[in-house]
Amino acid sequence: MNGTLYIVATPIGNLEDITLRALRVLKEADLIACEDTRQTRKLLDHFAIAKPMVSYHDHNEASRAEELIGRLEHGETIALVSDAGTPLISDPGYRLVAAAVAAGLTVTPIPGPSAAMSALSAAGLPTDAFRFCGFFAVKSSQRRKMLEEHKRDDCTLVFYEAPHRILEALEDVSAVMPARPVVIARELTKMHEEFLRGTASEVHASLAARPSVKGEITLLIGKADVPEPDDTPVEDAIAALEASGVARMDAIKQVAKARGLSKREVYKLTL
């Protein structure tokens, strides 16, 4: 009989955030696959859990996944954990889960802490729709390209960023999305937990005034202001522009751009 692969969420800071179910699964597992065995050992020792561990990270995913699938097929129960939070959410694990699913094995999530969800819940930004974008690109040009691609998204954007790059990232946000509200969630669930709110330039000024910026950081960007849809008939909208002195073809171009249509589509609607 095949074993089960458990995807176990672990605390992102405060050890009290681990669930009773997660503790039970870790105690019952035959093997714990860890992003960093040294980090996971601290967690296991705190809760007096003694189980064999094996490393599973970005650099050995391909070979290790094959080994773990073999152990699952021989009936072992394996718990996958990352250094903190929910595995696979900008952490290793995708190849293993995909391989387990392809092999017809049981994959069971053990939900719990997530920096992205924790930050989103307390940021004070709209949560009806959001996009998790993972880690920002390292280079400024790549970050700005990412931001341009999401510039018109009608939702809250969630990024992870390293403390030594956060000021540069905020400069890029300010250049591409200067008016959108920004929230920095730093050191979530830890002793120095902090939320900074404002525009990107305002938050940048607050952080830049400090000797240094440390800790795990989640950067949230509020959704863009999207104008209410224009229900005015196309011909009437064109006529109104013409009446103000705009040439007909220029009026068609303006109406097409405002409604996200092609000039040809707008022209057909006037026939």
Describe this structure as you would to a colleague.
- The chain has 271 residues and is an alpha/beta fold.
- The protein folds into three domains: 4-113, Tetrapyrrole methylase, N-terminal domain (Cobalt-precorrin-4 Transmethylase, domain 1, 3-Layer(aba) Sandwich); 116-221, Methyltransferase, Cobalt-precorrin-4 Transmethylase, Domain 2; 234-270.
- Helix content is 41%, strand content 18%.
- The chain contains eleven helices and ten strands.
- It has helices at residues 20-28, 37-46, 61-73, 94-102, 115-123, 140-149, 166-176, 200-208, 234-243, 248-259, 263-270; strands spanning 4-8, 31-34, 53-55, 78-81, 106-110, 130-135, 156-161, 182-186, 194-198, 217-221.
- The protein has a five-stranded parallel β-sheet with strand order 3-2-4-1-5, sandwiched between helices.
- Helix 6 links the parallel strand 6 and strand 7.
- Helix 6 packs across helix 7.
- The mean pLDDT is 92.
Strand content: 15-25%
- Overall shape: it is elongated
The CATH superfamily title of the largest domain: Tetrapyrrole methylase, N-terminal domain
User: Average pLDDT across residues?
Assistant: 92
From the 3D structure, determine the CATH topology of the largest domain. Answer: Cobalt-precorrin-4 Transmethylase, domain 1
Corresponding CATH architecture of the largest domain: 3-Layer(aba) Sandwich
**Computed structural class:** alpha/beta
Percent helix, as a range, is 40-55%
Q: Please, how many domains?
A: 3
Largest sheet: 5 strands, parallel
Distance between the termini: 69 Å
Q: Low-confidence parts lasting 5 or more residues at pLDDT below 50?
A: none
CATH class annotation of the largest domain = Alpha Beta
